[in-house]
Amino acid sequence: MKTKIILTAFVLAFTVACKNEKKSKEVEVEETVITDGEDTLVEETVTPVENNEKHEWSYEGENGTQNWHKTHQDCGGDHQSPIDIVTEEAEKADLGEPHPSYKEETMIHNVINNGHSVQFNFEPGDHHIFNDVRYNLKQIHFHEPSEHTINGVRYPMVIHLVHKSEDGQILVFAVMAKEGEGSAPFNFLESYLPIKKGETKKVGKNFNLPSILPKDKGYYYYVGSLTTPPCSEGVNWIVFKNPITVSKEQIEKMHQSLPDHNYRPAQPLNGRKVLMTE
Ligand SMILES: [Zn+2]
User: Fold this and answer.
1) pLDDT value at residue 13
2) Best CA proximity match to 228, nearest among 189, 272, 175, 267
3) Which of 99, 172, 167, 104 is nearest to 129 (CA)?
4) 9, 71, 100, 213: least buried by Cβ within 10 Å?
């Protein structure tokens, strides 16, 4: 009997010790700046101790795109982005109003160079309603050249406008830019360039966001992923069919603050359907 009680006490003590250890791992809360291009947001992230080390990634060399899946498992998933969009294979669908509900004046908080892109962070306020879900605009950033290709065409630049819903769903607009006439909104954004890697500049000014979108707002839609580690899937992509134009000088100026070729190559569709507006 005595032995049984001692044994029971020992098992209980062991269980409590295990639980405490597990708990201490689970509740280590860290303020992390996720510098993944698509979703650089300051968030409270619960990180298990053993996964605490930061995995560097880049666009070339040992930590380049082809090796991302080794340190970020999701990058090896089946529903990744970007993709090559083939118009002939896209299905026409009633995708609803393509006009974002942006105000003409929206406040840019600051601009950062996170080493992977130049990113303008927005004050809360602007949003886009898609499939009855409200997505709040968080930030815009740039890739040079574009990540998605349309019928095999890679544009010299793309702007990604990243939105997030209250429950954490992500919606990204991709606005292609081709070389041509200069863009006035670009002049405003580029007045904060050059910006060095790791540098942040305060903006605190209004920006006419609708002016950076193409006039014809027809678009392609499919579900993919963040195009940078951690490559999380379930991202709603709206890729505008028509590009805007920016001048050669504007492309060159942006290029000076970006890493060379900060794009991920096209990923396999793996049976996914691309829809498009009629
Ligand atoms: Zn991006």
Assistant:
1) 46
2) 267
3) 99
4) 9
pLDDT of amino acid 21? 39
* Residue 135 belongs to some domain of the structure: yes
Cite the active site residues: 116
Q: How many domains does the chain have?
A: 1
The pLDDT of residue 29: 33
Q: How far is the CA of 22 from the centre of ligand 1 (A)?
A: 36
The H or E element spanning position 121 is: strand 118-122
- Would residue 58 count as lying in a domain? no
Q: Is residue 178 part of a domain?
A: yes
Helix or strand run (H / E) with residue 244: strand 244-246
**From CA 253, how far away is CA 260, in angstroms rounded?**
13
Distance 113 CA to ligand 1 centre (A): 13
Residue 224 CA to ligand 1 center (angstroms) comes to 12
> What parts of the chain have a pLDDT lower than 70?
1-54, 97-99
**How many Cα neighbours within 13 Å face the side chain of 205?**
12
- The amino acid occupying position 20 is N
What's the CATH code of the domain at 215? 3.10.200.10
Q: Give the structural domain span for 171.
A: 72-276
